[in-house]
């Protein structure tokens, strides 16, 4: 099918004959009717006495540029005048030299569509035309209604996934969005994180529901939602606890110890120097936790992981973790996995501490 013509429209065009819709209505003039080249002449003809001898009457008609019509042939209506009492018609078929004439409207009657096509379609054809129109409307409703419904389902799924992972997204944005020396946000890493979230969470879920084709239409809206959710303050946020990226490293260590104490742990920051890699030592029942605190502008590397792994042995601790406001390098993550070291953002400390306490109780 030619591009731009929908199936419903194509069926409509097949069912409705173009000549029937486009051709003009043909008219017939009564035998003996008088036609004049000017409407004023037609009015003067009506004033002539019909009792005049034939020759003078015919001469009078010729002088007024009028003539009798035998009633044969068909005419095309060009317009009406004098409150529709006078009709202007042109003989069909239209040719050069066919002069339009004015007739009394009472002498003119419609006979159908030019070319002997009936003016009124048969009822069977009208039923086909109506059926074609119904099919076209139904096709449009089904096509665009189905598209709308699929996009709605896809949007609901995307929204659920974003809110489900909202806490992780909020923490990741705080880790990845840093400020340069001029106070301007650097969002390149966060934009890559958004793309990774879409690639690993959103798109597989859409494919699983057979809604992958809706993604281009939803992409901008979903990315805006991800950023909106990630900008919200995480639960247990430090906004009211006194955290500031401008605080000094010692104050940051005390801040992390305070957050652990708020969760029921016996936590204290170690004295500066000679801490053997542990900035905070926390105890909850039989569980001993050592923490390395890093207040950084850039990603935390291997050194912090190595220090806290050594501190765990030195303090005979059960669990070791690095806590930072920033992200971690890939080598640091790899080394942490092989040494069983947890890498956290400070907003994750309360949930992490609660999880450790529950695990030790079950054990």
Question: How does this model look, in words?
Answer:
By secondary structure, the protein is an alpha+beta fold. It has three domains: 24-113, no CATH class; 137-230, no CATH class; 242-362, 3-Layer(aba) Sandwich (Trna Endonuclease, Chain: A, domain 1). It is 47% helix and 18% strand. It contains twelve helices and 14 strands. The chain has helices spanning 7-15, 18-22, 39-45, 54-63, 123-164, 166-176, 188-208, 215-230, 249-262, 302-314, 330-339, 349-362; strands at 25-29, 34-36, 66-68, 74-81, 86-92, 101-104, 108-113, 178-179, 185-186, 266-269, 280-284, 287-294, 319-324, 342-345. The strands form four sheets. The protein has a five-stranded antiparallel beta sheet, with no helix packed on it. A hairpin with an 8-residue loop joins strand 5 (86-92) and strand 6 (101-104). Helix 1 (7-15) runs antiparallel to helix 5 (123-164), helix 5 (123-164) runs parallel beside helix 8 (215-230) and helix 10 (302-314) packs parallel to helix 11 (330-339). The chain is rod-shaped. It starts with 6 loop residues before the first helix and ends with a helix.
């Amino acid at each position: 099918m030619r591009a731009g013509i929908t199936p419903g429209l194509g069926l409509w065009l097949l069912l409705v004959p173009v000549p029937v819709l486009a051709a003009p209505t043909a008219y017939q003039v009564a035998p003996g009717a008088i036609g004049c080249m000017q409407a004023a002449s037609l009015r003067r003809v009506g004033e002539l006495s019909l009792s005049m001898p034939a020759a003078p009457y015919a001469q009078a008609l010729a002088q007024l540029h009028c003539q009798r019509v035998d009633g044969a042939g068909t005419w095309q209506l060009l317009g009406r005048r004098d409150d529709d009492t006078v009709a202007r018609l042109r003989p069909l078929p239209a040719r050069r030299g066919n002069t339009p004439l004015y007739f009394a409207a009472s002498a003119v009657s419609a006979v159908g569509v030019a070319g002997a096509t009936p003016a009124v379609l048969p009822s069977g054809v009208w039923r086909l035309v109506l059926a074609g129109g119904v099919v076209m409307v139904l096709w449009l409703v089904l096509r665009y209604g189905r598209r709308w419904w699929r996009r709605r389902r896809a949007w609901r799924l995307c929204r659920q996934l974003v809110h489900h992972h909202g806490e992780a997204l909020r923490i990741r944005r705080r880790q990845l969005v840093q400020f340069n020396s001029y106070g301007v946000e650097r969002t390149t890493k966060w934009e890559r994180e958004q793309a990774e979230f879409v690639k690993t969470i959103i798109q597989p879920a859409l494919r699983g529901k057979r809604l992958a084709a809706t993604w281009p239409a939803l992409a901008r809206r979903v990315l805006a939602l991800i950023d909106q959710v990630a900008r919200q303050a995480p639960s247990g946020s430090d906004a009211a606890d006194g955290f500031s990226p401008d605080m000094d490293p010692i104050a940051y260590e005390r801040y992390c110890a305070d957050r652990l104490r708020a969760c029921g742990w016996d936590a204290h920051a170690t004295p500066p120097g000679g801490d053997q890699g542990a900035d905070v030592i926390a105890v909850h029942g039989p569980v001993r936790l050592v923490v390395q605190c890093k207040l950084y502008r850039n990603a935390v590397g291997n050194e912090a992981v190595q220090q806290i792994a050594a501190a765990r042995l030195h303090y005979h601790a059960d669990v070791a973790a690095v806590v930072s406001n920033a992200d971690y390098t890939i080598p640091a993550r790899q080394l942490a996995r092989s040494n069983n070291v947890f890498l956290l953002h400070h907003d994750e400390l309360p949930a992490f501490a609660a999880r450790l306490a529950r695990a030790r109780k079950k054990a």
